[in-house]
Amino acid sequence: MKVLIIGSGGREHAIADAFARSSECTKIYLSPGNAGIAKEYECVPLADKMQILEFVQKHNIAMVFIGPEQPISEGLSDFLREHKVRVLAPSRAAAQLETSKAFAKRIMQNYGVPTARYRFIQSAAELDFCMQEFSFPVVLKADGLAAGKGVIICEDRSSAVKAAEALLSQKAGQSGILVEEYLMGWETSLFAFCDGKDFVTSLFSQDHKQLYDNDRGPNTGGMGAICPISEAETYRQVIEDEILSPVLKAMQNEGIPYEGILYLGLMITREGPKVIEFNCRFGDPEAQVVLPLLQTDFVLLCNAVIDHKIQGLKLSWKNAHAIAVVAAAPGYPGPYTKGIPIKIPRIKSKVMYAGVSEDASGLKSSGGRVLALVNVAESAQEAREAVYRDMDAIDFQGKVYRKDIGLRENQVF
After folding, report:
1. Which CATH number fits domain 2-90: 3.30.70.3400, 2.60.120.200, 3.40.50.20, 3.30.420.40?
2. Contact indicator for 239, 115 with CB cutoff of 8 Å
3. Right CATH number for 321-396 from 3.90.600.10, 3.60.21.10, 1.10.1040.10, 3.40.50.720?
4. Which contiguous run of DSSP H or E holds residue 211?
């Protein structure tokens, strides 16, 4: 079968690799992909929904997998389904779990799903009133899509006012922002493969959002990840029973069943797991460490989601550890430098390409997060040592990367 993956980053590179391991897959296309991914898979520029549909029909594409949130939020999955295309991604309406944090909070509140206390405001003037309900630090979140950078932790009133004004001025915050209590604990991520009614879940992973070591600096789209997180397994049953099941039931009751991959961003607190956020697709870079450990045929898994046959499917995983370390361009997550030459020697880690282009002289940086190195090994220590040895070998002037991925200590409460 032929597959078309929509997207251009490291997540989509990992998805392509997962499909490539399936004996069912005969051809993999990505649109638009990038110059690095194009070294392994055919990348095609498809400008809009109609071009995607025409390509699918012309090339007998058996499945379309939508990687990023933006095309899902713009209704690409709905459009393709209307034209009888098999597509793995939730509907635009169901994707509100990610595209509107206010919607997600309403669902959780109405169905008793554990999450942080919050208030929704639409102007900075409302901040003083609602701040009486919270103590510092407090978390401010843009309501809409913000590419992983719409969250600000504020230590005092002055910084909260500045953050509120900044978020409200952005497109992602124009409909409003959430003021949330700051949750104490440690974060983990979980993917659920949902067919509208039932689900199966992945291994736990752990993202590292802040730019610098020791979780300092601004939030980014993710600077690295590890998998598995053994300490999180203690909480799997309660997460599935008290978070996933109620949310899927809620979406059914709302008339917008969730069919696709649901990302759960979780905080493990002394009171138990609580939801930080939902995403309507694979996380990035979590996909780069979870998918390499999946032993179940990825085509079989995707078909089970699309055909509403996920119930009873048992996923199989490698007994190994995976680590991903992201190399970003100088200036990221703010205005960043482009066009930096990249030379990659022969290394053992897998290169997942994100923001890269190519000219006659070779690969160059073109995005904020440029690439990720992924290493899979029997032990976490072995994977860490290998990935950092390889990162040091890459010739990419000014590359920014964290040197502490995988060193967090997670407490089981």
Report:
1. 3.40.50.20
2. no
3. 3.90.600.10
4. strand 210-212
According to CATH, what is the number of the domain 117-181? 3.30.1490.20
Quote the longest CA-to-CA distance of the chain. Answer: 59
- Tokens 């990687």 found at: 67
CA 374 – CA 225 distance, rounded (Å): 9
* Per-residue pLDDT tens over the stretch 265-314: 999 999 999 999 999 999 999 999 999 999 999 999 999 999 999 998 99
Indicate the pTM of the whole model.
0.95
Q: Where are the domains of the chain?
A: 2-90, 117-181, 186-306, 321-396
CA dihedral defined by 2, 89, 18, 267, rounded to 10 degrees? 180
**Residues belonging to the chain:** 413
Beta carbons within 10 angstroms of residue 362's beta carbon: 11
Average pLDDT in the chain: 95
pLDDT average, residue stretch 100-127:
92
User: Is domain 186-306 annotated with CATH 3.40.30.10?
Assistant: no
Residue 343, Cβ density class (10 Å: 0-12 exposed, 13-18 middle, ≥19 buried): exposed
